[in-house]
Amino acid sequence: MISLKGVKKSFGSDVLLEDISFTVEPGERISLLGPGGCGKTTILKIILGLLNPDSGTVELMGKDMLAMSSDTERRQVLRKVGMAFQQGALFDFMTVRENLFFAMEHMTDFSAEEMDRRVKELLQAVKIGRTEQQYPFELSGGMQRRVGIVRALATDPVVAFFDEPTAGLDPVTSTIILNMIRDLAGKTAEQALVVATSNVEIAIRFADRVVIVHEGRVVADGAWRDLIVNGPEWVRHFLSVRLIGLDEEYARELDLPGQFIDRYWHQGGSHP
What are the backbone dihedrals phi and psi of residue 235, each rounded to the nearest 5 degrees, phi first? Predict the structure, then answer.
């Protein structure tokens, strides 16, 4: 569904991406994880064709995004993609309803009746059914984020990307947003989902597989439960340091590996 090989990207003399390679299969859900500023958003923009890499190959749904000869061809591919940008990225001059209609009008063949029904169903599903005629500035940050995610999924995309969907939100709202993505998405066996985040807890709650980016490279790609115990030192530290202060009951709710819990909760293990 997605394939990047040897992707590099610089901005002037600043090298942001040195060697990015990973694949996502149909029906797979992954977390693209790394510290703030490591290039996660840039990777998403490159996959979508919004930025060209300096070198490497990029395929989306079997199409070479760098070899497309026309904007029409690229648009045909992107019609099958959903994207939720940071902070929602809604059109301020459009109501919630108009924002959702805009996406469906340009990316689907839904009839007006189908779009109207879908707007009502999706907004009700995320508990903001009464916001249909409101403008983004009238909504809280969490509500704006919900609308942005609904817009990304309203078109029934084959691939959906969520860029820092919980950044700046309180823990309760973050949980609501994450659960909303999981409830609304993945309705078909083929749909692939990618969340880009710097929040370890969000990453491990969203997907079993994490692709970790650091200093321009993919430094780990695999099941987070294995990486947090057996991964390279930097990876173990990055995954562990934000989790070991949690209450043990909550740590178990996150399904942290027993070996990890025994070390840091029962034996007074040192800071990772």
Answer: -65, -45
Contact yes or no for 34/12 (Cβ under 8 A): no
Verdict on whether the full-model pTM lies above 0.85: yes
Cα separation, 1 vs 200, whole angstroms? 24
Residues listed for the chain: 272
pLDDT in tens, 211-240: 999 999 999 999 999 999 999 999 999 999
Q: Which two tokens stand for residue 27?
A: 């029906």
Both tokens of 76, joined, read 């045909």
Cα(252)–Cα(44) distance, integer angstroms? 32
Residues 6+ apart with CB under 8 A from 43: 4, 7, 17, 20, 32, 196, 213
Domains of the chain, CATH where assigned = 2-266 (3.40.50.300)
